[in-house]
Write the structure tokens for this entry.
Amino acid sequence: MKVQIINRSHHVLPEYATEQSAGLDLRANLEAPVELRPGERKLVPTGLFMALPQGVEAQVRPRSGLALRHGVTVLNSPGTIDADYRGEVCVILINLSDEPFLIADGERIAQLVIARHEQAEWEPVEVLPETKRGSGGFGHSGTM
């Protein structure tokens, strides 16, 4: 799938780390390092702007290594970038650890997954079709 992109950062375009990676690494585009204190959240710019095809979204997701090693994750995960959005791609990071984290320029801060989607057309009804599960919700299938 072709996606139009403007790169106003001073970094290479996002790349897939391996041949079968689902996500592209997003990098912080900063003039100077930014400290993220414990419990603090910040909007981190990437310098990227894109035009997604209709019926496609971009999902901003955490990087597992950053979360595991430093307790830093994407706050609204996954963040959705709609096909009609033309502003800069930014990432809301939060530090869930008890140590400050320094975000360096070029740091890989999140990953971007491009996904197709459909829009729903509501069909109001009075009764829904029956299923074996029915209205069983949280924990309905037991603890194992």
Notes: The helical segments are 64-70. The longest helix spans residues 64-70.
